[in-house]
Amino acid sequence: MKMLFKQKFFSWFDRYDIYDEEGNILYYVQGELSLGHQLRIYDFNHQEVGLIKEKALTLLPKFTMYVGDQEVGKICGDFSLFTPKFHLTCNDWIVTGDVFEWDYKVVNSKEEPIMIVSKKIWQLTDTYVIDVFEEQNALYSLMIVLAIDAAKCHNS
């Protein structure tokens, strides 16, 4: 399953539309005013399905993931010299990026791929192609990409 993650150009807060391969909207993401990023995820019927909340004032980025009202885990930045690295507390997934922070790979502890993310360059807004290997991992994969994008702002 492929998803296209595209940030809205004119927006006071973070706003993203997530499309499938045919150009249909799968998710809408809306940022909210808070100390640290707070991003609500809605499905194509405008029903809230998830939330990402950044913990403010931390050395390394840390995000809490919610599905509905239930906390499902955290996405935590790990210290790394040349490439970004994150881990998830809800499962055994590891997220690693390239030195330019454009491409990311998510694998489980057995090194089996979960998703691959590539940033499209030469775009006016942040645009990523998300290749998810199993459809049931789509929402968590989207949450990871949102956290990575917000972590880049954290580090800037």
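[next item in queue]
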Amino acid sequence: MSSVEGVGEVKVLIYMKNSQEYIVEKDMPTTDSVNGENSEHKKEEATVYTTNENGNEVPFITQTRRPKVDGVVISARGASNEAIKLQIVRLVMALYGVEANKVEVMTMG
């Protein structure tokens, strides 16, 4: 942001809603067993494994969810100018997908 005209030194603090999450592939084998008149139908979830480059078995990851940004606080030289402050807020909104009410811009002294 310091490359934005009118903005000098910048410090940014980003609040995350959660941490990175890995979703592993699950297999749902079904088992049927019959004991006289009683029959049972079971579904058991089991993690699917794959082999990595070192030959070790590791869970098969199907998806990685990135942490969500919950808020951003910025301290910047030049933010006393309302036009520059608005430009910083819009930039943060575009970069991190947060609403304007979750972005606080303060003037650095």
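[queue empty]
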